[in-house]
Amino acid sequence: xxxxxxxxxxxxxxVLGTLLEERSVTRAARRLGLSQPAASLVLKxxxxxxxxxxxxxxxxxxxxTERAAMLQAASAKALEELDGxxxxxxxxxxxxxxxxxxxxxPDHILPLMFNGIMREFxxxxxxxxxxxxxxxxDYDFEGALASGSADLVISNxxxxxxxxxxxxxxxxxxxxxxxxxHEFTRRPPSADEYLAASxxxxxxxxxxxxxVVETHLSAIRVVRERRVVISYFSMxxxxxxxxxxxxxxxxxxxEHFAGILPLAIIPSPIAYPRIQFYQLWHERMQHSPxxxxxxxxxGEMRSHSLRQR
Length: 309
What we know:
alpha/beta
């Protein structure tokens, strides 16, 4: 009996994986560089191939069908194996690569390090694509690393998952960022005054992982007045201008925004531990030449950026 021709292509697998991850035709199209009608057409083709709607509407948006949930990990693995057929196991030439790299990270890391990295990525791998995915409490980054839908996670949690590979990029200290006319710029606050002040605080950006500031305050059994809580970390400096708010943040981040906004940096009266920024990846990507190149690029450019400061 003749086996039917398989209509699936690497393109279909890539679109399928992106659609199932984003659960939105619009967002998937944007990531893939397709028009929305083109992405919708491919979704229709995929539905015909699998005899299943794959994505269905619900009250909170699009959700995966049971069949789609089963296909998600399998399609990611199949695509990875297809891509691997075209890669010399001992060599990777970024200048000719058309690979898509996906990095998940909180938004406060972008101004710290990605200007130099983006410049070098575009220079060395002009045909490759880079997707930067925001971390959030609804994003399963561990599952994304395991399935291959994310290549790297960059973060600074005090206790990252021990089974993931890790490479430290740099360390930093905590300071306070305030409006340049804030009373604390004229008179350094005591620890009690600092805790009672009106703070801008970021919401948790990953499941089961708290930030260094909240973790340390809990450990010493004190609380601060979280007057404004935001999901977008890089929005916080703009909220400080002309207000009595205070934002506890890393020095490199504070220096970046103090250089472009009327803000001032003051020492923190609470002695927070120094913080490590690192990249995380899954064990199965440890020996991938393409993945090794990406990790080395990020580590190399971050070190260069710190030397230039």
